Amino acid sequence: MHLQYPALFRQQAYIDGQWTTASDGATFRVTDPFNDELLAEVADLGAADTEHTVDAAHNAFPAWSKRTAGERSSVLRKWYELILQHQEDLAVLMTREQGKPLAESRGEVAYGASFIEWFAEEGKRAYGDVIPSHRSDTRILTLKQPVGVVAAITPWNFPIAMITRKVAPALAVGCTVIIKPAEDTPLCALALAQLAEEAGFPAGVVNVVPSNQPAEVGEVLTGDRRVRKLSFTGSTATGKKLMAQSAGTLKKLSLELGGNAPFIVFDDADLQGAVAGAMASKYRNGGQTCVCVNRVYVQSGIYDRFVAALGEAVAALQVGVGTEKGTDVGPLINDAAIEKVERMVADAVAKGAEVAIGGSRHEAGARCYTPTLLLNADASMDIAQEEVFGPVAPVFRFETEEEVIELSNDTPYGLAAYFYGQDHARIWRVAEALEYGMVGINTGMISTALAPFGGVKESGFGREGSKYGLEDYLVVKYLCWGGLRG
Predict the structure, then answer these.
(1) Nearest 5 degrees, angle CA 425-CA 427-CA 429?
(2) Is residue 109 in a domain?
(3) What class of enzyme is it (predicted)?
């Protein structure tokens, strides 16, 4: 792999300020999802190596937490600058191991860096309080202190942004971190560790544990009482398991889990704006995002015009290898992913859906799926009940506001929802009625470091980004100071 700065290509783990192999010498393969080309043989750490990493993070915590917020901010700021300096190399690395188009990878690098920039400043504002006392000779104060060692288990679909969104606030307030990247995409995490080292983080403050043994590593991170916080992004099933495993030590948890996002288009919507929003939210990263549109609900009065315009936009998407200019949709991450898409489309067709566009694998590559538009979808189809995590948009027709609210909320998930319309009174009603942690109104792009990202119901809890994201890595200590007689 050609990089302008070859030091970013790392295959070893990063523990306690050292690049190291697995204790038993084990490695696992990392391949390009487009053509299965071998990219790297990465250290495959197990339980013993993970325990050693917890030792390192625990030992580094006292000194790092005692640094001033300004001192920690300076190191974070340097890390941010280094990431932007090497944006192109990081984008190439991401596209090769994850598959998304290079333009999207460049965007993710900048997006990921924005969390570091934001929390480098926000970490200076972890304020406590002086509370009016219940007695004249007593004063009540609260302090906010770092929770301790933080484990961050991150997914493959955003291999840089999902790391920085978790670890930037943790580092800013004085926590030390252990990053367990997804098995499919460890190279971006290791590149971030290289730049973290260059930025000046002390040994043990930032650690990366690549592993193809997620269950073993997870058991250590959830079972060790020195790990005081676990942040996980991934499936609801895995999140529930990690939550159960963490119960024994009562860890603080942030869980960003599965979604089933509705995209509602009311009769009075700006047609072109709604189509653009649906395209951005549905087909970005090949449909492989947790906030991707999963169900498109269109009111009858605008249905035919919307479907025609959306169909034109979908048909114009270019499928291919992410490194080629002009590619809009790259490969899905692995064989299981494309097989799931095929299964869900087949189920929808068997239950009466009409394939307007696509509906099959694309000739560009074995893991490429043609951007697909399904019409006449209904609630009986699997695609209405679970994330497809691929470039497939099922369209449902609805008549009334009450009907679409009921359909949208009829799911155990509650991460993101979107709707388009102009009636201000209805905008308030619908925004308040949707049972989701995030709602996009006349926009299909909602993610930013400045806003709280997270869900409700079985999409998890905790917030990432914004001032609220800082709170998840802090504990409140109450000080009762008595005996203050004049």
Answers:
(1) 70
(2) yes
(3) oxidoreductase
Contact yes or no for 269/430 (Cβ under 8 A): no
Q: What is the 3-state secondary structure (H, E, C) of 59-114?
A: HHHHHHHHCCHHHHHHHHHHHHHHHHHCHHHHHHHHHHHHCCCHHHHHHHHHHHHH
Q: How far apart are CA 31 and CA 203, in angstroms?
A: 30
Question: What does 320-333 look like in DSSP terms, one character per residue?
Answer: S-TTSTT--B---S
174 and 265 in a common domain: no
Number of domains within the chain? 2
CATH assignment of the domain containing 214: 3.40.605.10
Task: Report, as residue numbers or ranges, the catalytic residues.
Answer: 256
- Do 10 and 92 fall within a single domain? yes
Residue 30: both structure tokens together: 């990392």
Q: How far is CA 304 from the centre of its chain?
A: 34
Put residue 228 in one of left, alpha, beta given phi > 0 → left and psi -120 to 50 → alpha.
Answer: alpha
Model confidence over 152-210: pLDDT tens digits? 999 999 999 999 999 999 999 999 999 999 999 999 999 999 999 999 999 999 999 99
Query: How sure is the predictor about 462, in pLDDT bands with cuts at 50, 70 and 90?
Result: very high
pLDDT, mean of residues 267-277: 98
Tell me the whole-structure pTM to 2 decimals: 0.96
The answer to whether 26 and 217 are in contact (CB under 8 A) is: no
What CATH number has the domain bearing residue 376?
Answer: 3.40.309.10
Structural domain includes residue 371? yes
For the chain, what is the mean pLDDT? 97
| Helix, strand, or coil (residue 410) | coil
Euclidean distance between CA atoms 28 and 466, whole angstroms? 36
- Decide if 465 is inside a domain: yes
Q: What angle do CA 458, 459, 460 make, to 5 degrees?
A: 85
User: How far apart (Å, rounded) are the C-alpha atoms in residues 394 and 374?
Assistant: 5
DSSP code of residue 453: B
Give 349-385 pLDDT, tens digit per residue: 999 999 999 999 999 999 999 999 999 999 999 999 9
The parent domain of residue 215 ranges over: 6-257+459-478
For residue 432, count CB atoms less than 10 angstroms from its CB and return exposed for 0-12, middle for 13-18, buried for 19 or more.
exposed
Based on the domain organization, do 140 and 108 belong to the same domain?
Answer: yes
Are 327 and 474 in a shared domain? no
**Is residue 397, in this structure, part of any structural domain at all?**
yes
Residues 152 and 120 in one domain: yes
The model's pLDDT over 142-154, given as tens digits with 9 standing for 90+, comes to 999 999 999 999 9
Q: Are 172 and 119 in contact (CB under 8 A)?
A: yes
